[in-house]
């Protein structure tokens, strides 16, 4: 069997302005649901051996703190870490485990998060992300695969650069997040 944890959303804006219910909803969808689904299905995935696969769609946002997307980045850091730990715990079982970290991708994410005004450059395509996932499953690439050369460079830089610099660059790249829509169809977005 295969489990793909792909549901998720983010909320753009300063953390101090976030609605508490929205934070809880985001954490439930982005952290609790994939953790519990994975825990529930992991025994059968392990039993499937090489026919089994666990793919958790995380994000490049999970590689570092992201001002104006604080909860989202923290949630994605959690699922990347959890999936990496499961990868190590499952070694030798044949189960293929992957934390997939695409960068900005052409989906409804930006509109739903209120961050459609981010200056993100080129958006990746869903097809590129899917192709990267299947390619990674067919290799021994390790537990985390970051999609796209530019995103891999950014992830490497986030690990190596001083945290203060990472935060400053992140804040500048998301500075317009707070000016996006805060409601859509009468509900917070």
Explain the overall architecture.
The chain is 48% helix and 12% strand. It has 189 residues and is α/β, with parallel strands linked by helices. It has a single domain, classed as 3-Layer(aba) Sandwich (Rossmann fold), CATH 3.40.50. Strands 1-2-3-4 form a four-stranded parallel sheet, sandwiched between helices. Helix 1 runs parallel beside helix 2. The termini are far apart. The C terminus is likely disordered.
For the report, how would you describe the main beta sheet?
4 strands, parallel
Which CATH top level class fits? Alpha Beta
Q: What is the annotated CATH architecture? A: 3-Layer(aba) Sandwich
Side-by-side strand order of the widest sheet: 1-2-3-4
SSE topology string: EHEHEHHEHHEE
Shape verdict: globular
Termini Cα gap? 34 Å
As a percent range, the share of helical residues equals: 40-55%
Low-pLDDT ranges: 179-189
Number of domains: 1
Class based on secondary structure composition and strand pairing: alpha/beta
CATH superfamily: NAD(P)-binding Rossmann-like Domain
Averaged pLDDT = 79
| Number of E-type strands | 6
H/I helix tally: 6
């Amino acid at each position: 069997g295969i489990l793909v944890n792909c549901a998720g959303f983010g909320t753009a804006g300063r953390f101090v302005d976030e609605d508490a219910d929205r934070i809880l909803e985001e954490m439930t969808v982005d952290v609790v649901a994939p953790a519990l689904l994975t825990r529930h299905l992991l025994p059968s995935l392990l039993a499937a051996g090489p026919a089994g696969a666990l793919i958790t769609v995380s994000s490049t946002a999970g590689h570092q703190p992201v001002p104006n997307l604080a909860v989202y980045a923290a949630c994605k850091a959690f699922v990347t870490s959890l999936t990496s730990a499961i990868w190590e715990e499952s070694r030798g079982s044949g189960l293929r485990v992957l934390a997939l970290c695409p960068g900005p991708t052409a989906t409804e994410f930006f509109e739903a998060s209120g961050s459609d005004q981010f200056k993100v450059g080129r958006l990746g395509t869903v097809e590129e992300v899917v192709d990267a996932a299947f390619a990674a499953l067919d290799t021994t690439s390790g537990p985390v695969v970051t999609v796209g050369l530019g995103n891999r460079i950014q992830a490497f830089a986030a690990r190596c650069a001083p945290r203060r610099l990472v935060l400053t660059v992140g804040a500048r790249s998301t500075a317009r997040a707070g000016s996006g829509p805060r409601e859509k169809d009468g509900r917070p977005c």
